[in-house]
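FAQ: What does the model actually see?

It sees only this:
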Amino acid sequence: MSADARRLGLVAALLLLALLGAYARPYRAVETALSGTATAVPASAPSVPQTGAPRGPDPAYVLLADSDWWTRTTDEALLASPYDLRPRGDLASLPRQLGEWRGVDEPDGDTESLTLGAKQHVLRRYTNERGEMLWLRLLASADWNMFYHNPPTCYRANGWQLEPESRYAVPVGDATLRLRGFAASQPEGEHLVLFGFLWSNQYRDMADGTTLLEIVVPLAGDRDQAARLAVGFAGLLFRGSPNLASVYAGRAQHQLAASLDGQVTLLGYDLDQQSVRPGEALRVTLYWRANRNLAADYTVFVQLLRPEGAAADQRLLAQLDHQPYAGLYPTSRWRVGQILKETYELKVPPSTADGQYELIAGMYSLPDGRRLGESIHLEMVPVAKQ
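And it is asked to produce this:
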């Protein structure tokens, strides 16, 4: 059974009674808007829109993109964007003029019922001077609500006939955005639908939310041309791999200049709280600077240790180890002078006794586990039940 089939079955079970009926009716309202002008893309006058926004100042937003919401795929990529497409950002602030495309917001009726608890929803029709047209849908949802907004599920639930999916590569500078796509048809017309998902960081935190990116092109003949329109438009939203040195440059709350064998310097760190309770999470943000072009891929570790009096093999209370940006930006890709900021979340065990615990950080190589320099002492963190 395919992933979409399993997802569809779960959604159907969840929405079997009241939700399914409430959901299907309003979603058709949007699809009516998307089906009223199925002849907008002429088969003649082919064009190849720009596949990437022009280079300019380094964009302010770093996003994680993937072609699936439910599981991580090999399509996952870190991308930079000049636009705030984060699920907690301001989706409506996306410009109505994007390259040659001019957009107009579409009415979406009862937004609350239409989007089933989505935090934000933008439906916009873009046209160019040749009369070509497409729709952009941006929908931000938190927790598990994105189950309800998976495009193949939505279209099938509203009577559309779907053809097998394809993958579409969107070149954006030195990176690639990979989207899923399918052709959907009803008696009123046929569409090509490309879609993917965006997160604010590499952790894909459900509480933070997810942004659905969906581009719909009416099919009126040349499918390759429709695909070129959708791919070209998607490329306007991003500017390649993020310049993390520019995006994340800034002063840490706590300044350090701790070197790891002369290769990497920990410039400082932030703590989101001065103390933590048992069972809570301690969020630590580290600011790294590359002093050399690193040949190895190092793993970052952050640890909370029991006081010195504890036995050496019992000092470790909590830890988090992973390669930077969940392996999407390994240290072998760091370049001299780059400043990188990453947040780590340590779970303090509920049974932890009150006291002062040592917070340390560092790097090591795999598979031998050899540390790069010495571990770095950050500070003593109070753990207290009250």
